[in-house]
Amino acid sequence: MAVVEVKRKGVVVKLRPASLEGVQCLYVDVNSVAAALSDPEELFRSMAGFPGRAVLVIDAWHESHLPLARRYLDLCRKWMVECVLSESKPAEALAAELACREGCAVLSRDVDAVKAVDNCGVPVFLFLRGRLWLVE
């Protein structure tokens, strides 16, 4: 499939269809990806079976995030996946920061993750339109 251009939040990104095959380390913006799924637990279940290291980053930087953060932490424990609370910035920003530091990929639904990576050279995957895309 060809490369497609998408404009979101004033940012134009080029995307190509992708899979996580071969990815060894992944930081996931949980709130944005889970929001796109009919069953958010599906994300935790799939990350439990991820062959590499997957770290789920959960929004907890505002009081309004706390009920959902608690639910997501429970799912992290249930599925035995590594999770990190983002208590001072949006999860996509922390996921990008940690991914850049460790040379890992980022998975989000939010184009802000592309801006947050700021050309550090790590792959950014976006979950849009029910599909996984790699930002070129």
What do these coordinates show?
The structure is a single chain. The chain is of the alpha/beta class. The chain is 34% helix and 32% strand. Helix 2 packs parallel to helix 3.
Helix content: 25-40%
Largest pleated sheet: 8 strands, mixed
What's the overall geometry?
Answer: globular
Structural class: alpha/beta
Number of helices: 5
Short description:
Helix content is 34%, strand content 32%. The protein is of the alpha/beta class.
Summarize the helices and strands and which ones pair or pack.
Blueprint: E1 4-8, E2 11-17, E3 25-29, H1 30-35, H2 41-48, E4 53-59, H3 66-79, E5 82-86, H4 91-102, E6 105-108, H5 112-117, E7 124-128, E8 131-135
Parallel strand pairs: 3-4, 3-6, 4-5, 6-7
Antiparallel strand pairs: 1-2, 2-8, 7-8
